[in-house]
Protein 1
Amino acid sequence: MTVEVDLHVHTTASDGTLTPRQLLEEAARRGLKAVGITDHDTTSGLAEATKAAQAVGVEIVPGIELSTVWHDQEVHVLGYWLEYEQNWFQVVLQDLRQERVRRIEKIVKQLNNLGYHISLERVKEVAGGGAMGRPHVARVLMENGFVNNTGEAFRRLLAKGAPAYVPRQKLTPAESVRLIRRAKGVPVLAHPGLIGNENIVEELLIEGLEGIEVYYPEHSAKEQARFLELAERWHLVATGGSDFHGSDRASVGDLGSFGISCATLIKLKKVKDIISASAFGI
């Protein structure tokens, strides 16, 4: 399948290394027809991305990636074409970002206790006003010579089970799906292969899940085939994306390396039209 649309990318609005404009310019250079901007718990990059998309001739799919917890397992839920400018929705996102800040404060304190002396102020500078996350801490650790790359920072210090890992309060996947649908968006389960339990798909169907990310860098061929079968069984749109963060982010794909065709994007748009119509009682 030729990748025409990458539905899972991040910018400096969260933990990516390219600005929304830089990302769209790079997408145009690579011949992509559309890109889904799915920053973590924020939509702050979408205005710039929309302007850049018009300038370079690449369609923007406005989105978000919400972090949730399900049976002590981290689960991410993607949302597309939300009416994200609504005040109530932005209040929810603000609460989520404040929780991110509290978590990073604890992580930095733990790192300092372990002898990795970095400052919270520098982490905030690296985040550049975007939603702070562990990748920003990883970059500061690398900057200070404690690790060789961000992947090493996660493996040694920041991943679940590592010495400086700190859990944070999160939504449940069901709450995220309901939140996205309330904002008239299309909810999609991100990288199910990283969850390790496909029972979540059936649970989220009840809440209104509309898609599943089948094509993803860390899915094996066997997993991809299995998730495609699940999508067909449950009448979900089989989506895909690279989870591109930038050049210094380990273990995710390059921009446009994974994704979908324009024909599949049209299917997803039809789902959006149905959700929008039903939200108005049509």
Protein 2
Amino acid sequence: MPPVIHVRKNSSASLYTSFDVVPSPKGAAIHIEQFARGIAEEFGPLQLATISRDGQLNSSAFDTQIDQVEIPAPGNDVITRVMNFRRLLKAWMNERSYEVIQFRSPFEGYWIACDKQRYCRTLIYEVNGLPSVELKYRYPKVAEDEVLLDKLIAQEQKCFAAADLVVTTCLVSKRYLISRDVPTSKIVVIPNGVQLDVFKFSSLPPLECDERFRLIYFGTLSSWQGADFALRTVAALLQDVPVQLTIVGPGTAIQLRSLQELATKLGITNHVCFLAPVSQSELLLEIHKSHAIVAPLTANDRNLEQGCCPLKVLEGMATGRPVIASDLEVVREIASNETVILAKCGSVQSWKEAISYLRENYILATQLTVAARSVIESRYSWDRARQQLNDSYRTILNNGATTLAKS
């Protein structure tokens, strides 16, 4: 029987912190919720520290075993917000220490990594994306600021060095982390998952010969996701076939306006519908109204070098709707020609041909969707992802002669 860890009264043995708003429709928030619940169910009470939704310091019960504190992150730019979040999180953590701290970026984890022994025995860095790679896509001027990029890289390296375990989502990311001098022995790959009771399978809707082929793009509007490419593909398709595209997901006002302006420029505004972010259950309804899902990931360092585990592809594969996705290594890690339709990344002609073929051979999509759902059920449930995380916890804690006791 593992030894019981004694912690301060009214404290938790573990902390999970992230510079994100939770809950929210974003994939990051869904990921955090799932991992937080898994840790708490297996190892007992957990404290979850995230960005405040209303600018106030809030504390509440997120779940039976999870207490959430929402830390304000005021400021007019991301650097100011990060610095304020760090300062207020550090103040909140004064006199607190944990057996395990898990964090998702240097924004919240760097100062903990700098004084690890003060705050925890075991430190886990969950790498879903790195600011040195991704920040420039939201703030283009970052790419021109070599000093800032050097600082981000240095802080990431400090986090890598201090972490006892580095969790990432795909083999491409693992390869990139190794290139950043993270020891292979530290890295564990845990792909994203799907909430199977939410993303339910449904049979294909009928398609009349002259009916608009209804496509849906869902997910964030970040440039690496390719929503703009989806618009260009629709413009090309309309030369030959009737088609309708629904875009649903979170994005900045600038990102949304840029996509709307592009739709106007392409002359396809009557064939595109933009929807605000919705809950997962509401998203499923929109998916099931559609004939097919598009996931046009773009060719850039975020997708090709850093890597990712595209949640939209996984969730789409579960729903009973065929997925057309960019033929990238990160997609092929989770899908194949037997489960999705792969189109050449960045080629409007290839995408046009793939979607046209699917429309003309729509009945064959049933084979894809059944096979795709089977793969998701067997390999990519959140239950499986949580179990993999908990197994990694047990391994690293036992190796360090420290074990969290389940309450």
Protein 3
Amino acid sequence: MNLKKKVFILVFILLNIYGLLCGVIYFFQENLIFMPSFLPQEHAFEMKNLFKEISLKSSDAAQLNGLHFKKENPKGVILYFHGNAGDLQGWGQIADFFVDLDYDVLIMDYRGYGKSRGEKSMEFLYNDEELWYEFAKQHYSESKITVYGRSLGTTFAAYVAAQNEPYKLILEAPFYSMLAIAKSRFYLLPIRYLLDYTFPTYQFMDDVNCPVTIYHGTYDQVISYDQGTKLYNSFNSDKKELITIPKGGHNNLISFKEYTESIRLEL
């Protein structure tokens, strides 16, 4: 086999691998971004604190499930948007920390997570989270609503805060955009043309009028610390703060006193 033919075969193989990778990103992007667990409708949640189960219907009739934790005399409410894995049976436990600080907590599952149902799209997901803010406004004045997003949930929290006038926006391990994350991981692929779920968090930040606090760990291996700082630097505000957690990872910031002591002051 001559050299020209060998080169042709090598190029052919590489192009096929390249095309296969593009296909995997395009057709399986939901599997790469969303990692839900499923709960049957008859599932009975077990939580430490008192709560009420909430069910909302979206504009396309999707069923959205959430938990509303209540204190007798709350200081306000935390509207909490969780990360990309699991469901409310696990994520509901995060409410304990805020309930112990005398706050109500409203936390929900996204479409396809837990008991929530419905076809996913970026537009549907953003619209769903606005429904939860509307629900919160039915029970609290906006001056009592703190919007909190963690990981994937930071893009929904930023969107909701930009559309409304909450008391504060808190982002834990946020990202500049999903497109930016994907580009950093698949830099040889034409990600811009493959990704439907671009989740442009940065586009919402200039429209956020309330104080913004960002928490990010320097050892975060899921959403890099650089993503958090890039988002922080992307918008102008005299009411923003970046709190760096040295050696903090993606899932353990609550174990650092820099976080727990700060969050008590922020709320």
